[in-house]
Design a protein that fits this description.
This protein has about 500 residues and is of the alpha/beta class. It folds into four domains: about 5-115, Cobalt-precorrin-4 Transmethylase, domain 1 (3-Layer(aba) Sandwich), CATH 3.40.1010.10; about 120-245, Tetrapyrrole methylase, C-terminal domain (Methyltransferase, Cobalt-precorrin-4 Transmethylase, Domain 2, 2-Layer Sandwich); about 255-285 and about 415-505, Rossmann fold; about 290-415, Rossmann fold. The protein is built from 19 helices and 23 strands. Strand 13 (about 255-260), helix 9 and strand 14 form a beta-alpha-beta unit. It binds S-adenosyl-L-homocysteine (SAH). S-adenosyl-L-homocysteine (SAH) binds next to helix 4, strand 10 and strand 12.
Length: about 500
C-alpha cells in the first residue's frame, strides 16, 4: 500500500477567506480532514463531499480528544495511505502543538507538509487596527502563552525582558489568567498605564475588542464577562486603534440583514454586504428547476438560424439556455446569425464569459426599458427569441409583438420555493433581532409570503426595514402589504448595497 501524506494546514484566525491558496489546494484533495475548535467550519466546504471529517476540538482547555489520541489518529490515517489534512486554527506552529504532531509523524515515517496560516495575533492586529510594531512606537513584538504560569512554580518566561524595553506583548490563551499576567508585567517594571486590548473571535463577525490599561483591564474584563478565545495585546501600539480601526466601524456593522435570493445566487450579494460589515442571514426563497417540458425551447434551438434577435434577461436565463444548447451538442457558434440583447450588466457579463459580445444592452433594465430600446428599430417581421422564467411578466413579448415582431418565449427554467426558512433566520426573526430584509425580485417576496403565509410574514417583518431592488419588486411588496423603505435609483445589487449603506450609515 502506498503511504499517505499528512498536511498540517493553518486555517487562519477565523475569517474563512484568510486561509492560504495552498491550504485550499490541500483541502480540495483531502480524503480525511481532522479539524479543530478554532478552525472555521466553513472551510470544510473546500474538501470533497465524500471526505471523512473528524472533529478533534479542544474547547477552552477541555480536550475532546487528548493530544496523544490526535497524534495516533494522524499516524493511523497516514499509515492507511490516506491524504490527510490536519486543519488547525491560526498557524500550526504557533501554540498549536503542530510541532508535536509532526514529531509523531516523523517517528512513524509518514510524509508530511506544513502550510502556514495567519496566526491569531496577526489577524487580531489587522482587524482591530493595532499594528504590532510601528517605527515611531515599538520595534519588537513577542508572542507569549498566557497559560504558562498555571501550576508552575518557576516561570520559564523572562518577565523582566518582556516588561522592560517597551516591546509589544501578545498573550495567547490568557483570558483566565489575565489578572495574573498583567500584574507580573507591572511587577517587573511596565507602567500600569500601558494600554491593553483584548480581541475576542478576531476577524469574524463576532469580534469584540475591549481596551484598557495594565492596571484596569482585568477589572473591565470581569465586569463585562469577557470570554475566551481572545488574544491580549499589551503596548503603546494599542493607542493607534483610535485612528486605525476599520473593521468595526464599517457602515453596516451591527446591522443584521436577511438576503432572500436563490441559494445559487445569494453568494455574491451576501459577500458584498459582509464586506460592508453586515451580519447576513441567508434565506433562500427561490429554487431554480428545469421547465416542465423542454419541447418549446428545443424547437426554438432547432430553428436558431431563423431568429434575428435573442433576448436574455437574467444570469439564470443565460445559464439554462446555454446548458440546453450544450445538451444538443451546440455552442456559441449556433448564434452566429442572431443579434443578442442582454438586459442588465450581470447578464451581459455572463454572455461575454461565453465569448459573445452582446449587441444591445438597454440602459434601463426593466422590461419597459427593453421595449423603449427596441422601439428605435424596425421590428416588422423580425423573429425574436426570448427564453424566460416561468413567472416572467409578459411586457416584453407583448410590447415587441405590438411593434410587429414575431416573438417566441419558451420557458427555460422555473422558480419554485423551498419549503421552509433556515432555522437561524427563523430564530432571528422570532427574536426580533433582524434590522433589514432585502428583496431582489418579485418572486423573492412572493415566495417568502407563500412559505410563511402572508399574515405571518407581515407580523414577522414588523419593524424590519424593507429594501427592494426596483419598482416592480417594490410593487410586489406593496401588493402583499409591505411598506418599502429603501429602493435604489439603479436596479443593481451594487446600487442596493450602496442604498443600504446610506440608509444605515
Ligand atoms: N495556532 C493558533 C493558536 C492556538 S492557541 C494560532 O496560530 O492562532 C489558542 C489561542 O489562540 C486562544 O486561546 C486565543 O488566545 C488565540 N486565538 C485563536 N483564534 C483566535 C481568534 N479568532 N481571536 C482571538 N484569539 C484567538
Amino acid at each position: 500500500m502506498s503511504s499517505g501524506i499528512v498536511y498540517l494546514v493553518g486555517a487562519g484566525p477565523g475569517d474563512p477567506t484568510l486561509i492560504t491558496l495552498r491550504g485550499v489546494e490541500c483541502l480540495r484533495k483531502a480524503e480525511v480532514v481532522v479539524y479543530d475548535y478554532l478552525a472555521n467550519e466553513q472551510l470544510l466546504t473546500h474538501a470533497p463531499e465524500g471526505a471523512e471529517r473528524i472533529y478533534a476540538g479542544k474547547v477552552g482547555g477541555r480536550h475532546n480528544q487528548g493530544q496523544e489520541e490526535i497524534n495516533n489518529l494522524l499516524v493511523e490515517k497516514g499509515l492507511a495511505g490516506k491524504v490527510v489534512v490536519r486543519l488547525k486554527g491560526g498557524d500550526p506552529f504557533v501554540f498549536g502543538r503542530g510541532g508535536e504532531e509532526c514529531e509523531a509523524l516523523a517517528d512513524a515515517g509518514i510524509p508530511f507538509e506544513v502550510v502556514p496560516g495567519v496566526t491569531a495575533a496577526v489577524g487580531a492586529s489587522a482587524y482591530a487596527g493595532i499594528p504590532l510594531t510601528h517605527r515611531d512606537v515599538t520595534p519588537s513584538v513577542a508572542f507569549v502563552t498566557g497559560q504558562e504560569g498555571k501550576g508552575k512554580e518557576e516561570s520559564t518566561i523572562d518577565w523582566n525582558r518582556l516588561s522592560l524595553g517597551g516591546g509589544t506583548v501578545v498573550f495567547y490563551m490568557g483570558i483566565t489568567t489575565l489578572r495574573h499576567n498583567m500584574l507580573r508585567l507591572i511587577e517587573h517594571g511596565r507602567s500600569p498605564a500601558t494600554p491593553v486590548a483584548l480581541v475576542r473571535w478576531a476577524t469574524t463577525e463576532r469580534q469584540q475588542v475591549l481596551v484598557g490599561t495594565l492596571a484596569d483591564i482585568a477589572d473591565q474584563a470581569e465586569t463585562s464577562s469577557f470570554k475566551p478565545p481572545a488574544v491580549t495585546i499589551v503596548g503603546e501600539v494599542v493607542s493607534l486603534r483610535k485612528k486605525l480601526r476599520w473593521f468595526d466601524t464599517r457602515v453596516l456593522c451591527d446591522t443584521s440583514i436577511i438576503v432572500t435570493r436563490s441559494a445559487e445566487q445569494s453568494g455574491e450579494f451576501s459577500t458584498k454586504l459582509t464586506m460592508a460589515g453586515a451580519t447576513v442571514l441567508e434565506c433562500p426563497t427561490i429554487r431554480l428547476v428545469k421547465p416542465e417540458s423542454w419541447q418549446l425551447l428545443d424547437l426554438a434551438i432547432r430553428e436558431l438560424a431563423n431568429y434575428d434577435w435573442l433576448i436574455l434577461t437574467s444570469v439564470n436565463g443565460v445559464r439554462y439556455f446555454f446548458d440546453r444548447l450544450d445538451f444538443h451538442g451546440l455552442d456559441a457558434r449556433a448564434l452566429a446569425g442572431c443579434k443578442i440583447c442582454a438586459v442588465g450588466p450581470r447578464t451581459a457579463e455572463e454572455i461575454r464569459s461565453r465569448g459573445i459580445k452582446p449587441d444591445l444592452i438597454p440602459t434601463d433594465y426593466k422590461a419597459e426599458g427593453v421595449i423603449d430600446e427596441f422601439s428605435r428599430l424596425d421590428l416588422r417581421n423580425a423573429r425574436i427569441l426570448y427564453p424566460r422564467a416561468d413567472k416572467a411578466r409578459d411586457v416584453i413579448p407583448q410590447g415587441l409583438q405590438q411593434r410587429g415582431a414575431q416573438v417566441d418565449s419558451p420557458v427555460a427554467y422555473r422558480n419554485v420555493f423551498p419549503e421552509r426558512l433556515p432555522p437561524e433566520t427563523l430564530f432571528a426573526l422570532e427574536k426580533r433581532s433582524v434590522d433589514c430584509i432585502t428583496f431582489t425580485s418579485s418572486s423573492t417576496v412572493q415566495n417568502l409570503a407563500a412559505m410563511l403565509g402572508e399574515e405571518m410574514m407581515l407580523d414577522m417583518l414588523k419593524g424590519v426595514t424593507v429594501a427592494s431592488i426596483g419598482p416592480i419588486t417594490s410593487q410586489s411588496c406593496r401588493d402583499l402589504g409591505l411598506k418599502v423603505d429603501i429602493e435604489p435609483e439603479t436596479h443593481t445589487l451594487e446600487a442596493l448595497v450602496a442604498a443600504l449603506e446610506k440608509h444605515f450609515g
